[in-house]
Amino acid sequence: MNSSVLSSLLPVVLLIGAGFLAGRRGWVTGGAVRDLSNLIFLLLAPALLFRTMSTVHVEQLRLGPVAAYFLAAGLIFAATLVVRGFNRTSAVIALANTFSNTVMIGIPLIGLAFGPEGTVVLLTLISLHSLVLLTSATLVLELAVAREQARQPGGARTPILRTLARAFYNAIVHPVPLPIIVGLVFAQTGLTLPESVDKPIAWLGQAFGPIALVMVGITLASTPIGHQWRAALSQALIKNLAHPALVALLGWLLGLRGLPLQVMVVAAALPIGANVFLFSQRYKTAEDLVTASVAVSTALALVTVSVVMALATSL
């Protein structure tokens, strides 16, 4: 097994394991799980997303290498909705099929495997990853929620333009897309945050990854994976193998070669990110499946990422 893969993934597995132990021992009760989820979703994630985007200058982004990644993600996301139908569960599963753990696992892994040049390519992807995928998923989820509410007994039929406008508003004024957009706009002003403000925001953002992964473990402790393992394995295989394979194909067709394409393929092979788990909890759908899928995808990545990295060197 590639040592860089092991050194990047092992901390993630250990954090999920620590959460699993806490859940099994009853150190965190059911009510506290929801409160912790709100803390992560409403405070820690916005801090991380705002700070990440607050230093991104649009003119410095190398968009060519990330085109294959987002094109592949868009095709998989759309195919999932077509196969499963347009509803909130399908939208969350589609996000699980396409959203990689690019920060906690991706940054150290790509840095070890491809050096500074590869890290620059990955950071370009990271600067757009949440903006594109999470904002798109939020819009789809809000549209699905509006559609479900309209179909309920006694639910009023709302004109389609009003439904779209409300869904778009809810997708923007939201704990995930809003800090991304505000951070991106702030970056274009050329201003920098005072250290006294930047430091606490940085601390909050740094707390996101570990606490979110511990939460996955806590939820996993009460999730009957025995009933979910087949579906979770299917999700993990789509994310860990189908996604990078499609990125490689599309990148090759777009004329990409060498290190930029290799980084995008490995990024697509990374396991499901914890943000998907938070979305499933936020929208109260597919929580058991997503929890199991994050765990299975992360464990499976110990093997699949090594395989993808070995194959990617020929691109």
UniProtKB/TrEMBL annotation:
**Topological type in the membrane:** Multi-pass membrane protein
Question: What are the record keywords, sorted?
Answer: Cell membrane, Membrane, Transmembrane, Transmembrane helix, Transport
Transmembrane stretches, start-end: 6-24, 36-54, 66-86, 93-114, 120-146, 167-187, 207-225, 237-255, 261-278, 290-312
Report the locations given in the UniProt record.
Cell membrane
The record, for InterPro entries, names:
Mem_transp_PIN-like, Na+/solute_symporter_sf
Q: Does the keyword Kinase apply?
A: no
Kindly report the protein's main subcellular placement as a broad class: membrane
> What family does the entry list?
Belongs to the auxin efflux carrier (TC 2.A.69) family.
The name of this protein is Permease
Q: What organism is listed for this UniProt entry?
A: Variovorax soli
